[in-house]
Amino acid sequence: MVVVETSEQELLRRTVTGIAGHFGEAYFREKARAGEKSTELWDAVAEAGFIGVNLPEEYGGGGLGITELAIVCEELGAAGCPLLLIVVSPAISGAIIAAFGSDEQKGRWLPPIATGREKMVFAITEPDAGSNSWNLSTSARLDGDDWLIKGTKYYISGVDEAEWMLVVARTGEDERGRGRLSLFVVPTDAPGLTRHPIDVAIVAPEKQFTLFFDDVRVPALHLIGAEGDGFVQLFYGLNPERITGAAYAIGAGRLALDKAVRYANERKVWKVPIGAHQGLAHPLAKAKIELELAKLMTYKAAWQYDNGENAAEATNMANYAAAEAAIACVDIAIQVHGGNAFSQEFGLTDMWWGTRLSRTAPVSREMILNFIAQQSLGLPKSY
Q1: Do 208 and 241 share a structural domain?
Q2: What 8-state DSSP symbol labels residue 58?
């Protein structure tokens, strides 16, 4: 695994930093609190060619990998203006279609995803399934040459600003009675599809929705790959989701730590900066160490994925480490700021819920520990 970035990756990082810095945390917070979309930022990143940097060149992408997309996400997060839909549009949906779609499907959906002209969100979570994908109840059945999709999806991000969604549905059962899964591209304005916003504590431009599919009709062309192959496709897309999610968490941790260090150097109570006291200096140093270790694991996972290796273990470890490190950075930043941490001026309360989410989504800490216990350590399955 290469630890040192190439000159092209360094240039990418500097360029994204410049774009993100032009907008910044204040822009993002203003948009989020006003209930508006961060469209100008999305368009600027798209115009630079970075939305689909991981997608094939022949379909308008950058021809690079998840490593480069992670760099984009990390720098946006570090500037305080993350674009959540990068995780679901090029990272999950784009990666799945590039790997499993037909030539016709790639030609239809990859160019607008790669250039950012259109967005494709991802719909898997259900109220009664949680982390158990085998237990999904949303179903798809053939009706002539079309598929009819029926069911409910929950906590689906950004449906109101996307043209398409990649929907995971049950198309039968295997010999053990588990759901046989398939993936379908569904227009977000399809007849029979209704959505209701979910009121969440996180202040962000992207909204969350409950979706109801009432025999939503999609043509056969919209089935990605073969019927029943959705489980393989699903996990191919979830590794990029977790890598880019980890990169965003690392960016948020960097931002929080920068705030804390700046304040610790400026704030004086007993004649010297409060950062001179070990009670604050040591937790800040510890947070920095943990954040850098998480970053190494994240880019190890990205490197393994881009080089065709089995990245499941590294991806899960990266997701775990990045979440814990980012939460620790925000927590110590709050502690360093004292009462000022709860002033909107410093932006730390807005960061708390978004960073805390990374311990729960896209995969919970407990499911990561289950995976490592069983797959890495060879312990008996516990669930």
Answers
A1: no
A2: G
